[in-house]
Amino acid sequence: MIKAVIFDMDGVLIEAKDWHYEALNKALRLFGYEISRYDHLTTFDGLPTSKKLAMLSVESGLPRELHQFINEMKQSYTMELVQTQCKPMFVHEYALSRLKADGLKLAVASNSIRTTVEVMMEKSSLDKYLDLMLSASDVSRAKPDPEIYVTAIQKLGLRPEECLVVEDNENGIRAAHGAGAHVLAVKEVHDVNYANITGRIAEIHKGERA
Predict the structure, then answer these.
(1) Positive or negative, the Cα torsion across 131, 137, 140, 141?
(2) Which of 8, 102, 15, 77 is nearest to 47 (CA)?
(3) Cis ω on the peptide bond leading into residue 144 (within 30° of 0)?
(4) Cα separation of 79 and 75, whole Å?
(5) Contact between residue 138 and residue 121 where contact means Cβ atoms under 8 Å apart
(6) 53, 71 contact by CB (below 8 A)
(7) Which helix (H) or strand (E) holds 4?
(8) How many beta carbons lie within 10 A of that of residue 15, not counting itself?
(9) For residues 160 and 47, what is the distance between their CA atoms, to the nearest angstrom?
């Protein structure tokens, strides 16, 4: 029986992939570096900024002593975009309010830093539905490691098989499966709706009864 739904944030509840792409490149360009949109959506999709910078050091020679400054600038640029562009979406407010009314626990588990998660959830008016918010700041190993989902499930007081994770990228899906949870894979934020979520829950319950 599914008792909780745990959401990834970027690309699931918030259409923020372009914001992260723009903010990171704006910070990288200060030092003459840049990542392509293709690499952003494939190689780097779903990874925390610190991991992206480590990969760029290996692949493109980005000096490691610049990591902290670039990371700080990237977060600052991201927050500027969040403040102006992050707004509530009816499809998500409706879904989370209905799921909450159905008695499900709701959580967000994101590779973004805590400040970004808190501000995005507040600006999108989703924070009031959440029982738990976890960020990269709350774990030692980011997705695709399952730690953040294992931690979320434990904090919710549930077993992995009682949780459904909603994810949009390979790294997050691997993390969810690694934690032993059920998964609903989505392609974009509008796929995250009440019908799709409850439909997946019904599939899981049907499979358990079979």
Answers:
(1) positive
(2) 8
(3) yes
(4) 6
(5) no
(6) yes
(7) strand 4-7
(8) 15
(9) 23
Alpha helices in 43-164 (DSSP H): 49-60, 67-85, 90-101, 114-123, 147-155
Tens digit of each residue's pLDDT (9 = 90 or more) over 106-130? 999 999 989 999 999 999 999 999 9
SS3 171: helix
Contact 168, 11 (CB under 8 A): yes
Residue indicated by tokens 């997705």 = 143
Owner of token pair 């904090």: 155
Q: How far apart are CA 122 and CA 78, in angstroms?
A: 15
Residue whose token pair is 């989902």: 149
Average pLDDT, the chain: 94
Among 130, 173, 163, CA closest to 13: 130
